[in-house]
C-alpha cells in the first residue's frame, strides 16, 4: 500500500495523542526502574531505583503507540475493540494504558490515578509480591498471557467468533511470528464468517529484533513480506518510520482506512481482511546509545536498556534524562493523575480497552441450555447385555446441545480433522463445518456458517477454543489422544492462567476447557506405535489440583453423564478419555449417574465378596481396562468359585488422591473402604501404570498395589494383541491374581499353566490370522 | 510457472517410468488388501483378503509418482538424493519402492524380489507382528516417522546441513502443510548455506483432502498459493493434472529444470530455491466410484477405498479389476520379481533411495573429537569456596568442541534465541550464527556460515537437530526449561523412533539427542509463573527406559563431566538441567567425574554421620535443591551438633529407579546403603516432587521419604522467595528435619519457632526491598 502522507489529525488531536503516548511510555519506563519518586519531583537517586531491574522495554513503546491509536478509533466510531498483545513481554505497556484509562484503579483501588497510585503501579511491577513482567491475568483487558509465544492470533480469532460487533486488534511481535503456531494461525481467517463473526486486525509489529537476534520477517525484502501476507490471504497496509509526528499521522490515516475496509468486508463486499505492518525501532524513544553502543533500534533494548542505574551515576543521569524527555510535567497534574486533556482522549466505560467485557468473559457467560443426556441412554437390561460406540452416542447428545444453543451461538466444537473419525458426526445433522475457502458440490458438511471448526493444527484448535472460552463462551476439543501432546505447552499456559485468574475477584469464572481424547492408545487400528501415548494425563496432573479434572468413563452412559457434568463446570480443565469403538454397556443410566457422582465405586454385580473382606481387589480405570478386569473377574468366578473378588471401577481419576491434595480426593477411610488396607489390589489402568502409584503412594494399602497399564509396547496390531503386548490382558490379570493372593499359587499351578498357554495360543493365532479370536472379540459378561 | 508441455521423455523412457509407477501402485494396493495370491495367478477370493483392512491409499500413488521421477533424476545425473515423506500415511509407497529397488530384500531377506517375497511384503503390512501402516524406522531409506504431522520439512533441512552434495526431496502433504511446525519450517531455507550445505526440494503435494475435509491450501486461489510460496522465499513450479502420460512428461521436464536451478543456486547464482507443487487426485488410479459415491479425487480414498472386499462380492470384483488395471503381467516376471526393463530404471547401490547412507546415519557417524573438559575445571580448594556460572563454563568447552570438529563439520548447536541468554556465548569466539537473510553492520555473531542456528521456533530447532542426528551427526539443543514442552510431542516421536530402530540390526546407532535445559524454574528472574515448569522430565521418563537419561548436575564441574558423557553416547535422549546463574562450586574435578560416574553418592564432607547410621538423610537433585540442602545441613550442624546428618546428591536421576526398571537403576542394596531402610529421608528435588516417589515407591524406605520440590507456586520474585513459596528453602528443610526425626520435636520447640520466624522475616524483607537478604545471597558452606 505504501506510506500515507495525509494529515488526518488536526493539531489538537495530534498533540493529545502524542501526549497520551508519551505518558504511557513514561509510565512504562517508570515501572521498570522506579521504586519511588515516581513523578521526578526531586533528582533521581540510587535509592529510588529498584534493586533488581527486570522487565522488557524493547517492545513496549510500539504497544503504547498501538493503544493510543486504538483509543482514537474507539472514540471516533464508538467501536467495540479489544486487544490481544502477542509481545507479552510488553507488560509495562498493558499496565500503563490500564492506569491511564482508570481500569487499573477499578480492579486495584490502591493503584489510584494519583502520585501514590503511580508509585504503587511502579513498585508492583516485576517485584516480589507484585505482578509479573509479562501481560498476565492480573492485567485488566487481557485474555492472553505473554511469555511463551505463538498463540496470540489464534486467541484473537477465537475471541472474534460469534461476536459480530467485536474488533480484535492483535499485535504480533516479529519474534512470535517465527513460531509454528503463529505461522499457521494466519489461515484462521479462512474460517471467520464476515457477518456472523467479528473481525480480527493482525498488527505485525516489526521492531526487528528478538533477545539476541534480528527477526526473519524484518530481514526479508519488502516484496517477499508483502507476498507472504497476501499469500496468507490478507491485504497488507504498512506504517513504517520513527519520527513521532509523521508516524501518528500515517497511523491514524491507515487505521481509518483499515476500519473502513473491515466494515466493507463485514457488509459482504468481496475484499480481503486487512493486516497492518507496523515497523518501528525496538526500544523506540529510549536511550539511543549506552556506553558507546547503539541501543535504540537494536536487540540491546530488548530488556533493560540502562542496566547499571543503581551503581553507575552516568546511567542514573541517562535514565533521568530519558524519563524527562517525555515531559511528565505536561502529562500529570499536581496530584499525579493524567491531565484533563489526556483523560479526554480515553474511551469511556466498557469501551476502554481494559474494561471491554469480552476480555473478562465470565461477565458475559451464559449457562448452556443442556438437553437431558438421559434421553440418549443406552438401554442396559443386564451389564454387558448390549453394546454401543460411546463417542457416537455422545455425538447425538452434542447434536442436541448445539441445536438447543443455536440462537445463543455460544457453543462450538473444535478438532484437527477428526470429528467424524471420532464418530461425533451426528452433529452434522444440525450444523456444519465453518469454512470460507472454496466450496465444491461434492463437499459434505462444509458450510459458510457452522459450529464445528476443523483445521489440521492442534495448536490453532486449542488457541481458538481458549480465545472462545476466555471471552465467555463454551466448547469442546476432540482430539486423538496421542497427538494432544502437541498442545502440552498451550495447556500449561491455560492452566496457569486459570490458577491465577481464580484468585482475582474481579475476573469472573469462565467455562472449563473440555478435552475429549479418543482414538486412544488401545484402539489405534489404522495406526501404529507413533499414535500411542496416554501420557497427557500425567502431564496435566502436574498442574494445580484445583483446576484439573480427569475422567475415564468405562462405557456410553458414564460418558454421557461425565460430559454433561463437564459442560456445566467452570474454571477447570476437564480431560475425558473415551473410546470410539463398540463396547459393552455396563451401567444403566441411573447407576451410571450415581457412579460418576461418586467417582469410584465397587461394582457389586461383578464382585463375589458379598460377605466380608475380599481376597483380592480388581480395580480398573478406562474402558479397555474395565473390559479386561470384568473378563478376568468372570474367569475367576468360573475357575475359582471360592475366591472372593471385588471389582472397583474408577471414573474420576482424581478420587484416588488424598483429599488433602485434591478437592475430589477420597479420605483415607473412603479409600480403605474400597481398596482394603491389606489385600492384594490389581489395578488395570488406561495409561502409564506409575501414575496410579503416584496418586496413591500415601495410602495404607499401597504396598499391595500392583498396576498394569501401557508400557510403550505397541504397533499396528489387533486390540487384544495390544493388551497382551502390554501385559494388561484378562489372562495376565488372572495370572497376577494367582501369583499374588497368598496361598493360591500352590493349589493352582495347573490353572496358571492353562492361562499361560491360552495367552500364547492367542498371540500365535493373531499373528497367523490377523484378527482376534472370536472368544475374545465376542466375549460378554456371562452372569 | 505454468504447465510445461514439452516431451522430455522418449517413448521407451515414458513406457518404463509409467511401468515403474504402475508396479509401485500395484504393490501398494496389494499391501493394503492381500494376504495371498499376490500376483493374481488365480481369481481373487475372500480368503486372499486380509481380515482387517488397515492402511492409507489416498496419498500413496502420488508418492510413487515422486519416487519414480526421483529415480530418473538420480540415474541421469548420478545425483545423491534422499527423501523425506511427510505424508507418512503413505507407508505402502515407501515399502513398494524399497521392494522394487531391492533395498527391502537386503534389510529383510525373507522379503525377496519374487512371488514368495511379494506375499511376505503384502502380509507384513499393517498386520500383527508386521510393520505399521506409516513410514516408520523399519522402512529402508526413511529418517522420518509418519503419522504425527508437521516435521517433514525441518527434518529435511536438518539432513541437508553440512551435506553439500545431498539433495533432500521432501514431500509435504497438504494436510501437514496446515500444521504450525510445517508452516514455519519453510523459513528454514533462510539458514541453509548454498555451498556448504545441501539442498532441500520441498514438494507440496496437493491432493486436496485430509481424513474428512478438503485442505486449505488446495482451496485457495492459485495466485494466493503462489504468493504464499514466494513470500516464504521460494520459486514455485507447478505440476498439475491426472492424465498419466502428460503428467510424466511435465514432471520430468519440471524436475530437470528444478535440478538445474538448484545447481545454479549452489554455484552461487542469486536465485531462489525452487519448490514443486504437485497437484494430483487423492487416490489417483484407484477406484473412481464405490457404491455410487465418487472415491478417486475425494477424501473417501484417504484410507481403504473399497472397504468391504471380504464380504461384498462386488467390492471383491472391483478390487480385482483395480489391481488388474496396472497390468501386473507386464510388470513382474515368472518368479514374481520386477521385469528387467523395470529393474533397469532403478538407481544402483547406495544411490537407491532405500540405500542412501544418509538415511541410516549411523553408517556415516564419526566420533566427535572431544577436548578434555577437565581443562575448564573450576578450581575448588574447598567445597563452595569458589563460584561460577555453570553454563558459561560449559560454553567455553563447547567452543573448544566446535573448534576441534570444525573440519569434520559434524557438530551444531540449536536454540530458539537463547544461546547468549543461556550464557553459552563463548562459542561465538570460534563460530557464528548461520543466517542467509539480510545482514547489517551492527549485527553481532551473525554469519553466512556458522555452527549455531537460532530461530524462534522450538519446533524447527528440534526438527533440524533430529534431521541432523538421523543423518549421522552430533548436536545440542539449549532451551529454556519451561518452553521445551513445546516439543513434547516431537520428543515422543523421536524417542519412539529410537526404541524401534535399536531393535533393527541394519540401522546403526546414531548420536544421542542432547537437551540442555537452563533458565530453569528456580531462576526465572525476568519472567514469571508462565515461564516455570520443570515437567519435561516427567514427560520424558514415560518413554522406554532404554533410551532416556536425565542428569541434574549440581555445579560447574559436574555439568562439564555430564556434557562430555552425553556427547559420547549413542541412541539416547539425554536431558541435562543446569542453571546459568552464579553458583558455588562443590566438587573438585576428579571428584566430580567420580560422582557423575556413580550417578549418586554420599557427600561425606557435608555429612555428620561418620560413625554408624545417620539420624536423617538429606538428599538433593538439582543445583538449587543442592544449595538449600547444604545450607540446611550447615544450620543443623551449628544448631544440633549431635544430630547425624547424611547428605546424598543425585546427579543421574535414573539411578533412583530399580535396576530391573532402568539400565542405570540401583539395586536395592545400593539404594539402601545410601538412603537407609528406616531413617527419615528429606529429598529436595528440582522438579515436581511426586516424580521422586514414582521412581522410588518400590524401595524399602519409601514410607520414610518426604520430597520437597516445585508445586506450581511462583511469579516474578527473588530466587529465595521462589524457594520459600514452594516450601523448599533451607529453613523449611530444617523444620522438616525437626518434625520428622523421632524424638527431636519435643526438645527443639524453640529452635523450630526460630526457623519459622526467620522464614517470615525473609518473606517480609523481600517484599519490602525487592531482593534477597545478603545472608542468603552470599551464603557459603562454612566448614
Automatic annotation (TrEMBL), chains A, B:
Its cofactor is thiamine diphosphate. Its EC number is 4.1.2.-. One of its GO terms (molecular function) is magnesium ion binding. InterPro entries: Phosphoketolase, THDP-binding, Transketo_C/PFOR_II, Xul5P/Fru6P_PKetolase, Xul5P/Fru6P_PKetolase_C, Xul5P/Fru6P_PKetolase_CS, Xul5P/Fru6P_PKetolase_N, Xul5P/Fru6P_PKetolase_ThDP_BS. It comes from the Bacteria. Transmembrane segments: none annotated. Belongs to the XFP family. This is Probable phosphoketolase.
